[in-house]
Amino acid sequence: MRELYPLIEPYQEGKLQVSELHTIHFEESGNPQGKPIVLLHGGPGGGCPPFYRQYFNPKKWRLVMFDQRGCGQSTPHAELRENTTWDLVNDIEKIRENLGIEKWFVFGGSWGSTLSLAYSQTHPERCTGLILRGIFMLRQKELRWFYQEGASYIFPDAWEAYLKPIPTDERDDMLTAYYQRLTNPDPEVRLTVARAWSVWEASTSKLFPDTALMQNFGESEFAEAFARIECHYFINKGFLKSDDQLLANVDRIRHIPAVIVQGRYDVVCPMISAWELHRAWQEAEFIVVSDAGHSMSEPGIRSALIEATDRFGE
């Protein structure tokens, strides 16, 4: 099992105004002369905690991380306006150009894998490789599984807490019921459902439930951005042109070196999505971690990701 690299500090941090409304916080760490790689965090709305830097050999990689619109240290906080998949794809390009990087690797897990696919399929000429984890292609069957019926059968105890803020007569469409409350002008209403939404995801993210993760996801500032932005994207079907857009456009990236890492017991992003991507894109290396769920911090997934960054870093 590979362990994390020691925690390092960024050698550069900055703000980039990407629209009249939004300003993005970004950082660079590792080796300024190393191979450029951009990390696309999950959620949407999750932000970049410092430990993400520890998945990359700091002597080999020039790591770029940024908080996507509305979350982390980007502003305005929890903002839904001008916040779509394609706004984020454009932001990635603006960051690349601002840093003077011609091409780079792309690393993303969960929603970060969705955004990695959207970005690389839009700008394949800018991608030297892809490292994807916990595949999520934002299809309706994936959303129904986690937010309506499916994961509820495996975590019925945590599901009760997710149902609790929603009246019984609205539970046939949980996404809509949550969206109405997450966009309510009353901050108390928003915060109550934001915590329930976020803790539901934290409760199901690991093979062995992690109470510290649940507590972190329930923190008010994190929960509001995470829940509001996720639900905003999901109610709008990811702003994709079709349900299978990311799967249908694999031909655009087939030539790019790639590895897909998937936990077999991932309940948040079930393995069927990774399997279908693998079947459509057999040129990409496919790694199934037999004793893991969704989280990138689970030992087997952590190890597979670090092995991948090491190989590509050479």
The number of distinct helices, counting runs of at least 4 residues, comes to 12
According to DSSP, the number of beta strands is 8
Structural domain count: 2
Give a quick account of the main beta sheet: strands, pairing sense, barrel closure.
8 strands, mixed
Q: Considering the protein shown, what is the CATH homologous superfamily of the largest domain?
A: Alpha/Beta hydrolase fold, catalytic domain
How is this fold's topology laid out?
Layout: E1 12-17, E2 23-30, E3 35-40, E4 61-66, H1 85-98, E5 104-109, H2 111-122, E6 127-133, H3 140-147, H4 151-154, H5 156-163, H6 174-182, H7 187-204, H8 211-218, H9 220-235, H10 245-248, E7 258-263, H11 271-280, E8 285-289, H12 299-313
Parallel strand pairs: 3-4, 3-5, 5-6, 6-7, 7-8
Antiparallel strand pairs: 1-2, 2-4
Helix pairs in contact: 1-2, 5-7, 6-9, 7-8, 7-9
